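Course assignment 3, question 2. Fill in each field.
Student: A.L.
Task: Predict the tertiary structure for the chain below.
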Amino acid sequence: MASYPYANDVPIHRGLPESGTPRGELLAQLEMMATTEDAAWEQGGCSGTMYCGDHDHYDFLNEAFAKFSHVNVLQRDMCPSATKFEAEIIAMTLDLLGGSGIPTAGGLVTSGGTGSITHAMLAYREANTERTRRPNVIKPETAHPAFSKACHLFGIEVIEAPVDPVTTQVDLDFVARAITSDTVALIGSACNYGYGTVDPITELGQLALQHEIGLHVDGCLGGFILPFGRARGEDIPAFDLSVPGVTTISADTHKYGYALKGTSVLLFADTQLRNSQYFFQTGWSGGKYCSPGMDGSRSGGLLAATWAAMVSLGRSGYAAYADRIFDTAAAMRAAVLEHGSLRLMGNPTFLFSFTADAFDVYHVNDFLRTRGWRLNGQQYPNALHMAVTRPQTQPGVVERWRTDLADAVAYATSKAGEPAQSSAIYGGVAGGLTEDAAIFIEAVMAEMMDAHMAIPGAIA
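Answer field:
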């Protein structure tokens, strides 16, 4: 898909129009844009991103959202429903992730995975101000960059632990040696974004208990699907609040929780840790101010839609979707292993990654893009990953994957020694249009200029 495929089909607004546009006309424009963009993932070629892919489900969530979209959940006296929605979202997530039997457990609904990670890092910093002014956390190299972003914002030092190149799990010996009196938390992923592998959470928990520090498990990606994989016998180690030493865990409802974008849950084994990140200003002339998180106003629509998604599906609904996803992931991995030139990374789950030694695996990606696939590019080593979602479970997708992958390997073999077009840019068409991020951005800018879309900030 071009970066702006409908440049000539909808008006360009470089300022507020003098008069309003009829609603029907605007809705027609929106329908055209949405239909164009949905076509990019509806056939099952897109890794991750569209975790549900069910338009009937989206319509249901949009209806729930609409009933509360205008509500500001700050005003709980006017909308007690927000308290019901948020509390039950947290309770259901605790029940799923080993926290229902912990009397001190609690949580927070945030704006997404980065929001949950950021709030967790803030909580660890604030809970340890009396013992250190130089807090640090130890994270695997494979942990999400949101940890580094949060620590940058809050003045927390990040100690990056290497991972085993074969298992792609964090090096426990390095973590043990790196812990100091200033360490406030360890980090593990369940599973990591790059390879779909789960860090040794039990062993990290023992280290955390030994040193009386926190352990955050990043389950943003896997939190709402890994429990069902474990229940069906997949090779997935324990990772949630039931593991001794785990003090916080994040899980994105807007991924495999099948809610609308913009929601995640951060769980705490002890609400005292959660409460440490609250903000109070009692002397303000506008009134006593208390904020449980960094956001002020929030739409009640997202809470309502998230609650509706979870209650409508229930355990049986989530389990049924998980079964199909794990079965599909296994079949797609088997297709990869049919090619001796491709190698799987680590012990993956519903998300798998593969690389190649005889040629640049980005050539595989270059070819697959011509067949409508959108994989995610990685680096060090160059690799590609597929996060299997519900769209991949449609009939015929696995068969198409097997056929297209075989053709892609043949193409890549013929291109051995030549530079590929793809590269590794997070969230950018499996790396974008060229092997260099700067060239990619420049190309998109030029395309937008050609389409008379020279709008400041349009790339952001």
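Instructor remarks: Residues 67-310 form a domain with the Aspartate Aminotransferase; domain 2 fold (CATH 3.40.640.10). The CA atoms of residues 186 and 204 lie 7 Å apart.
Grade: pending
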